[in-house]
Fold each of these.
Amino acid sequence: MATPQETFEDLEARHRKEKKDLIATITSLKKSIPKGDKRKKKEVAAEIAELERTHSERHRAELSVIGGCSKAFTSSTPDTADNQDHDQSGMPDAKSEGGSATASVLGLYTNPSQPVKPVAKKNKARQRLQRRAEQLKRQQEEAEAEAEGMVDTAAVETEAISKLAASDGLSIQEIRPDGHCLYAAFGDQVNTYHGYTVSYSQMRKRAAEYMRANYGDFISFMTREDGDLFSESDFEKYCSDIETTATWGGQQEITALSHSFQLPVHIYQSNMPVLRIGEDAYSANNPIRLSYHRHAYGLGEHYNSLRKDPAAVKQYTHAGLDASETPVKHCSSLQQK
């Protein structure tokens, strides 16, 4: 809050800096919204509105404090002036004239019986604050209107995948989007349907170990960013990253896990046939079933687990949708995540 020792110029400078900080905070909050997340947009919009409200109220209150201090100063000035600025003849000396000039600059009346006029700069500051608040409010309303008109691609994609999965009696089991989603989803499948108890970190280690042991099956398909094939050191670093970091996994890692567990893998995607990996070698075994989402989160692709759910077909049938109308075909490739 403003203090009696803080001048109006100091207060105005501080307010300008705080407004810049507020704009930076609002910009950061808007950038934190995941693509297509309407609920997060509404939460952020509410948070921004509250920040703007408290910011505006505090500035008004501080301006009022400065105004109150100015009034107190003015009311005490005449008595002091009477004692110090008049000589024995009762005429004001040069110092008194200087004091009057100072009071005039401050925009104050030298006559204590008249009310104190507010400093002109304070009115302008309030007007600037009000205009800025109105501008922020308009921007907020425009952003909300724009968000309402946007197509929620994540919701459309999830609906299409859910419909395709329902044709096989499956529903989506959400996996946390933390960079380990492929391994956590695969682990959910082997733990639920194949009698294992493994963590995502164990899944990462198993994929890396299989790839090292079968170096020749993978190295010829792996390239650096410049297009050159992996060297042995590149390959070893890649496997080390699988084990020790949150690097995303893709088709190479899925292939390694499929062979390591000797299980086929079925991957469901939006507007795409089901991708089948390891089907020829392990078709007699129950498959691992995963869903692959390109638009679920703003940071990139995502994997979920698909669990058996006979009610899934009924859900789409009751909604007037034909869950079996999407063909289930073989597909040979999947974009690297």
Amino acid sequence: MIKFIDEAKIWVKAGDGGNGCVAFRREKYIPKGGPSGGNGGKGGDVIFRVKKDIHTLIDFHYRQHFKADKGRNGEGSNKEGKSGENLVIPVPVGTIISEIQDGNEVFLADLSKDKMEYIVAKGGVGGKGNASFKSSVNQAPRKATPGEKGEDKRLKLELKLLADVGIVGYPNSGKSTLISKVSSAKPKIADYPFTTLSPNLGVVNLGDFRSFVVADIPGLIEKASEGKGLGHKFLRHIERTKVLIHIIDLSVSDAVERYYNIRKELEKYSKNLYEKAEIIVGNKIDLEEAKENVKSLQKTFSEVYVISALTNQGVKELMEAVWRKVNEYRDKSDDGEI
């Protein structure tokens, strides 16, 4: 099983430009030929390119230093140095690139579509050969310039999952069970908090060409917006979703209170996240202790879906409702409304 890596720090260095050349024509019958030193070649750029087949940043866990080729030096006979090869680094869809400057992170790019490219470090320009300095007052210049240094940067890469639907809720509320029932995703499931230590992505296929991508986000707790528990590490993954499924564990005594606790954390973290369309779901209706909480939930919220992810009770109706909501937001997006 591939380990999910959603954050990495790396160093990149673009190629230096090649040096210019000092040379003179040495041809038969031309004893004092003019300057013929060529310019140096340009250094290679460092380029990030999105590749849809990559799903994590795990490769950067094993390699953190990347250097593009240098430009070649200029030569006599006005030969320009060959440019250095660009270094193309593949990254997954949803990669955010920031530069680390004096301990601060400066946003550079958000690579949200397949095949998108971003030049993160530009190669140095090649130096000028002495042929470039010939003039009416200096017919035989012996001057050439060195190539410019390529840019180097320390970067932070972050991955934001791209899913239509994000499932949120307290740890052990049934998120992983639900995604395992409605998609082909196979998350680790056990009856204790923080079983899910990385996001799980699954495709829900309802037939008739109706499908959407759902992300099971690790359980949130109070002060998650401040980084407590798994905190910021996973809240960012639901920022791109269109719809939230908020699962409430009906078997606990403070079910409704837990709902509001999570809502507070979403609001603290991001107003945009807080205002996303939300479908409220009460889970574990198959347990006897959940029966009393169902009444409380239905009194508190005007629209709520009650299910048992374990036994599939109410799950099909829930997925149909989610599809309608997702489709509604896709249409708005296509029309430019959001």
Amino acid sequence: MQMLVKLLLIFTLSLLSPLSFAGTLDDVLKHGDIRCGVFPDDPGRSAIDSKGEWRGFYVDFCRAVAAAIFADPKRVHFIEVGPQTRFSSLQERKTDVVMYSSTWTMEREHNYGIAFPAIYLFDGQGIMVRKNSGINTLSDLSKKRICVTENTTTHTTLVQYLKTHNIDAEIFFANGDAFFRGSCDAYTADRLNLAVNKANRAEDPAAYHLLPERLSKEPIGPMVRADDPQWARLIRAVIDALVLADEKLISQRTVDQALLTHSDLEVQNLLGKTGTIGAQLGLRADWATHIIRSVGNYSEIYLRHFGPNTPVGVEQGINQPWNRGGLLYAPLFK
């Protein structure tokens, strides 16, 4: 009798386990779109344009996931999130994935029950000042006020840096808008974040510049719940597919020709002509082909939203495939 009770208890607990939830991919297929968390009003990264369409770097990654699952990049329900709700939206199952400027940390994965399946940007924390401020190095920030967003790794890094280098500066919780209004002498964030803010929120972008020092390394990636490894693997595969297509010079313009003529085994596996990667992910064989047709490869996305010919105007630098001097590296598609 005691053994029967134990078995029933084990069975009941297994039903209550987080892993007993229906898989995220099953849920997504059931409701017919992906619920993608993005930060609102952030041109270059995620914002609604004059035609009422979501545009931006992170938006394209949302659309890439939709293209992989549905062969339709428009099947995305965009959910607006902020510094705190980017985590809680996943915990409360309001979003399936969050595409945001979130730094991958071990503590965040532990505290919020989330996972970072991959990295889609390599960045570092910087500081922006007015060119006429007389601030030329970080040591010049003594007795100055620095704007920083609360509940971010940027804040904790800033506190540690000031303490380590004995810089007596005032920390003021505010975003870039407050800095451009003159509430602070400096503004700190990831360097790409600063470039986006300067391009979109400064009345005269040329009046500002970034100090040369970097305060940190910032591996930035999408976030998912930690209770669904299959879904995490799918999100990682989408990013890896964009990187591999870039490495192999498969673009939005050339993908259909590559399907017909490319003899490289990894490319054939990527595009679904050979191999079983799609089936392993729970997707159709040509899942990656639909991604590339919809949004292009990684560099096409980056250059479209952040590149030198955009208002943001940031060179790719290390955000390129390894064979062009960058840090982006996809696993073998074999």
Amino acid sequence: MIFYQVNRILYKPYVIYKFLRKVHTETLPSSNILYPLRNRGLLKVAGDDASVFLQGLITNDMNHFEEGAKSVYAMFLNNKGRVLYDTLIHKWGAESSFLIECDRKLITILQRHLKLYKLKRKVDIEDINKDYSIYALIALNAPDISDDKINVYKDPRLTDLGYRIISSVDAKDSEVAQTVGKDVTEGDEDGYKYLRYKLGVSEGSDDLPPGTSFPLEANCDYLHGVSFHKGCYIGQELTARVHHTGVVRKRIMPLKFTETISNIEQDSVISASNNPKSNLGKLKGFVNNYGLGLIRTKEALDAKTLKVANYSAEALKPSWWPIEAPKEVPKNE
């Protein structure tokens, strides 16, 4: 009876989750760090039809903004259900105005994509990169600022990713750091990328080349970036089908290498160390001793040790992934 009660407590999903969160959080930065994101760009979509227009193009639900959300994570897909652009969409000023944040290299292509579907809708699509800068603030708390110079948004994906800061381009990094909190230190883009890779979060065209992966493979569902209850959007049919079958064999996962990496080609094959001919996935990028791979989840976790080029690594299951509840221990045990 005592054994059964102990098992009931220890095997509860939230107990396991709290434990993993504690262990995982100890590896993340403890201080407040501001990372400039020069590789991110902004498009402004405004007009009476802006919300309805975007609703038919993205994986997430624009109605979240009517419910009080300031930002949502969303992906634009092609008609085959593959990811074209991963984005953060921020509420901006007027009621029918939004900023789409994405990889700076894809801004022109995304703008062209939006104009293709604009038709006669009352929507203006504007590239505003020359006017604003983007930052990531890793901190437990941040001031609620929304003015002409600085706007603060909570990252809608994970608490560990902190906040997004959109500031006027004439504000210096040091000025932004002083405005958003005390004892804020300034980092660089590699530092933010390293944090993302430790968490197992993909972002931008280097991690997700357009047209090569599906949204659930990029953990869009785990990162609150897809709605399975909204109406139609481009690429919805296949996304919904995969979700309802419950079978996603490959996902973006963090890789921890046994040493600091100096050079590996992108899309290098990831194999099990005990079976060099196996193909479990591809490497998407690396920073220091962490990488990001699109990997066959079960096989990679079962393999324990993986091989990427001449380096050894381990696939890690992120603590923020949903935890499956184990079967209840029978009472007669």
